[in-house]
Amino acid sequence: xxxxxxxxxxxxxxxxxxxxxxxxxxxxxxxxxxxxxxxxxxxxxxxxxxxxxxxxxxxxxxxxxxxxxxxxxxxxxxxxxxxxxxxxxxxxxxxxxxxxxxxxxxxxxxxxxxxxxxxxxxxxxxxxxxxxxxxxxxxxxxxxxxxxxxxxxxxxxxxxxxxxxxxxxxxxxxxxxxxxxxxxxxxxxxxx
Length: 192
Fold this sequence. Notes:
This protein is an alpha+beta fold. Helices cover about 20% and strands about 35% of the residues. It has an 8-stranded antiparallel barrel. Strands 1-2 form a two-stranded antiparallel sheet. A hairpin with a 3-residue loop joins strand 4 and strand 5.
């Protein structure tokens, strides 16, 4: 932060994810308010605001069904196609090819189950998307990327079908409700 009229600047470097960015904000504001002579009672309470945001974000991360699909039925509707019919290659011009496969996953509460996993082999990253069925053709797309500090995250997944009942596309919504930035819907066409 540089304030030329005051001939004052603050530079803060850190080496981690969200926690250090929060610390950067708190420290920068404290130094600026000290320099400007802001009285303690009039200072912006950055730590309190960051704490509120953290609690809200924790809820968002731990309740994907409620965040993405609050109107879902109590008893999930069956999917249009079996899970094995969803497997294959999906393509989107900006994101490239995605390969949807099945993989065994062990869960403490439900034991071993077969889930859908998407990987993009054309990327250097080891990231993947693991799909969890919600209801009908709606899924949660759990995105995990070891190269991204704030991973894991999630978005909505929706399989689309052609008039003959064949899988035509997979729509993924990366932006969660209530966020400032809306990245829109990314449509991967099924190509094989």
